[in-house]
From TrEMBL:
Top-rank lineage group of the source organism: Bacteria
Alphabetized UniProt keyword annotations: Signal
Source species taxonomy: Bacteria, Pseudomonadati, Spirochaetota, Spirochaetia, Spirochaetales
Name of the protein in question: DUF4398 domain-containing protein
Signal peptide bounds: 1-19
Organism of this sequence: Treponema bryantii
Length: 229
């Protein structure tokens, strides 16, 4: 009997090492107290009491481990939620809601789910949603939006016409899409029925074709990404 109880106590003491940095929780304190009582009872030959104290120590040690796991999960979820909030704030600062709308929306949705799960003390799911929020923002970077307008230059300088303008990387990167420019701007032309008659100084609108975000007037000093890539 004494050997069996000693083995039980040894296992309990080993398990308590896992909780060494969380000794202040009530369950661990009770487990330690019952372990000591079991040891004293065992030394005094009070085997029934030793068994009873050992069982109580084991129960509280298990509750302590569960509490520690919960607190660790809580801490990790809390940290990742903070990281996600910071990343979203940075994304908003670089205009990601417009330049990377799908990624930004996904990050916001997952953060909201993470916070809801955290409030419900579902820390495992809270952490998973927070990580998903961070992952959604992983590819976001600061970019110069494609231009929404273009000021037509003299033909001798830039060979500006709908065909050529449409083929430029920052417009549509494809001259065959020129009619989109024509339809969006023909009412501002001297002869709307003639797409060849664009004139220098004309502020040409570049309509979005695929939901791409466009802003401002083309500036040759800026570097733009290629449309469609």
């Amino acid at each position: 009997m004494k050997k069996i109880i000693s083995v039980l106590l040894t296992a309990l003491l080993a398990a308590s090492v896992f909780a060494v940095s969380y000794k202040n929780n009530t369950f661990q304190k009770l487990a330690d107290e019952y372990t000591k009582k079991a040891e004293i009872a065992l030394d005094a030959g009070q085997y029934d009491d030793a068994v009873e104290y050992s069982k109580k120590a084991e129960e509280n040690a298990a509750l302590s481990e569960a509490y520690i796991r919960m607190m660790m999960a809580r801490g990790e979820a809390e940290n990742n939620i903070k990281l996600a909030k910071n990343q979203i704030a940075w994304a908003e600062k670089i205009d990601a809601p417009n330049t990377f709308p799908m990624a930004y929306t996904s990050a916001k949705d997952n953060l909201e789910k993470a916070e809801t799960s955290f409030d419900d003390e579902d820390f495992e799911n809270a952490n998973a949603y927070a990580k998903a929020s961070l992952a959604a923002l992983d590819g976001i970077r600061e970019v110069t939006p494609l231009p929404e307008f273009y000021i037509v230059k003299p033909w001798a300088e830039t060979k500006d016409c709908y065909w050529n303008i449409s083929g430029r990387p920052y417009v549509y990167n494809n001259p065959l899409l020129w009619e989109n420019l024509y339809q969006a701007n023909k009412n501002n032309m001297p002869k709307p029925e003639d797409p060849n008659l664009i004139h220098p100084g004309m502020k040409m609108k570049i309509p979005s074709l695929t939901g791409e975000y466009r802003k401002g007037t083309y500036d040759p000093k800026k570097e733009y990404e290629t449309y469609g890539k």
